[in-house]
UniProtKB/TrEMBL annotation, chain A:
<keyword id="KW-0472">Membrane</keyword>
<keyword id="KW-0813">Transport</keyword>
<dbReference type="InterPro" id="IPR035906">
    <property type="entry name" value="MetI-like_sf"/>
</dbReference>
<keyword id="KW-0812">Transmembrane</keyword>
<dbReference type="InterPro" id="IPR050366">
    <property type="entry name" value="BP-dependent_transpt_permease"/>
</dbReference>
<keyword id="KW-1003">Cell membrane</keyword>
<feature type="domain" description="ABC transmembrane type-1">
    <location>
        <begin position="91"/>
        <end position="279"/>
    </location>
</feature>
<keyword id="KW-0571">Peptide transport</keyword>
<keyword id="KW-1133">Transmembrane helix</keyword>
Automatic annotation (TrEMBL), chain B:
<dbReference type="InterPro" id="IPR045621">
    <property type="entry name" value="BPD_transp_1_N"/>
</dbReference>
<keyword id="KW-1003">Cell membrane</keyword>
<keyword id="KW-1133">Transmembrane helix</keyword>
<dbReference type="Pfam" id="PF00528">
    <property type="entry name" value="BPD_transp_1"/>
</dbReference>
<feature type="transmembrane region" description="Helical">
    <location>
        <begin position="12"/>
        <end position="30"/>
    </location>
</feature>
<dbReference type="Pfam" id="PF19300">
    <property type="entry name" value="BPD_transp_1_N"/>
</dbReference>
<feature type="transmembrane region" description="Helical">
    <location>
        <begin position="289"/>
        <end position="315"/>
    </location>
</feature>
<feature type="transmembrane region" description="Helical">
    <location>
        <begin position="243"/>
        <end position="269"/>
    </location>
</feature>
<protein>
    <submittedName>
        <fullName>ABC transporter permease</fullName>
    </submittedName>
</protein>
Amino acid sequence: MALPDTASLPPTRTDFRDRTVGRLLRRPSALVGLILLAGILAMAGFADIAFPGDPLDMAGTPLLRPGDAAEFPLGTDMMGRDLASGIFHGARVSLLIGGVAALVSLVIGIGIGALSGYYGGRVDRALMRVTELFQTIPPFLFTLALVAILQPSIATITTAIGITSWSGLARLVRAEVLRLRNSELAQASIILGASDARIIFLHILPNTLAPVIVSASILVATAILTESSLSFLGLGDPNVVSWGGMVGAGRETIRTDPHVAAIPGVAIVIAVLALNLLGDGLNDVLNGKGERR
Amino acid sequence: MLTYLRRSAAQLVFVLLGIALINFFLLHLAPGDAAQVLAGESGAATPEYMEALRRQFGLDQPLYIQFLRYLGNLATFDLGYSFRQSLPVSELILQRLPATLLLMGTAIGFALVAGCSLGFLAARRAGKLTDTVISIVALLFYATPVFWVGIMLIVVFSVILDWLPVGGMTSVEANLSGLALVGDVALHLVLPAVTLGLFYLAIYARLMRAAMLEVYGQDFVRTARAKGVRPRRIAWRHVLRNALLPIVTTLGVQLGSILGGAVLVETVFSWPGLGRLAFSALFQRDLNLLLGILFCSSVVVVLVNIAVDLVYTLLDPRIELG
């Protein structure tokens, strides 16, 4: 093997952070994604201030259109619930479930991928078999069955999405770990007598960060889509307002008032789009394609 | 080839065992057992009656015996009985499977043809306006929930324009047969198939564009250019064919997710397939049926993936199964 090329050495931490953020902000798609995401975070943060009171309570005349009444800028649904309030409070639920579910699958996926890639052999074969199994079972149907059996609540929905969506990440992490395990860095640590846990956590996992960050943003986006689909089908947490549930409720009035179903859907599209744009941008920047265009 | 078949058979058996185990686990996770559900239904729930029911279904046996019995049932394709629909689960599934396969097949076909064409166009005009527009459209479709697309298409094409039916598979009142029936089903199929296909169209367009740009950077393309092959011929003969392989792989991987999308689309459009069956099983708490559908759809995914491997060898003779 030739001498290591200094340009391809992993950057130090501060270096990594500064350059990544800077390059990310110069990419229009990533910038748009960040702005949209910031907007949704702000909606979630200010929901209680902007719209105090339960968004599931009747607030005004049913089926007002956007612009009909000044205090209901987005109108009301057939139960007289304020759509704008639902959108703000729904942002909270979507982000919470999306974020925590992604965290659950990150923990499972990284754990299985790291063990599998590091130890290889029998452990690897067994864990990859399990991963294959989870890739085979249609994820949405699996989530549906889990939530239906456990009874829908924020906790069960989050767990179910997390349990059913880690398989792709596990494969990705496994491949990265497999590559890094044979790197000079890891080999040197083994010779120095470092423990397996130390090598995995200190030397290997930090170097898989780039692809993991990219998948994390996609995982959150997918989790938000899955959650909205569940609550659209009526399997959402009945005690909180959710964008998917709002679309489901608006379905009853699409002949006369399509805006009730249309508006929450736009919110879902914006949230998912923001995360996908961010993921694309991160992918380009972290995988070194940042200067292509 | 023989080793390949043996290996995929082993994989199939393992996956089936795994799904059976998961299903069994889920059944026992549910609050209350079958005896309680049935007893609750009939209204009479004396302890003696419950005991008799439990004995009848073998629920008084230890768990591993119950699991072995469950496996035995699955092996003979006995997926249990749906007490709500008063039919064996396997019969219900077989009844509904064709409608779902028709919907999925049409949606995948549409997504493949339209997605690959858009990706092809975007790659040939990389960096130009066409590319930007296609990329933005693909990004939007990729972020749009399937059920919402369905509802919005209904609003536009059924409610406002009144061109296409709102839902269902046939016009019940018309009582058609022969060619007229085929046309009628086709008309009902348009909106659901487009709804389900748009998301995957976005994926294939993005994938195709990336794959083509990657192949464009390879040496053999440069050689082709250098010897003066026309750009159009390079794109069609050299780049397109090589870029198709990752698409086939993704198709196999995504089959399970397409099935999940079918549940949503069938619910929105009242399409009488597996997804709608799963939806009603969900709300009638018909666990036998729900888990039977989960089991069968996983089997379909495994089988199609084996088929995809075989298609691979046809597309690229360099690939050998083994």
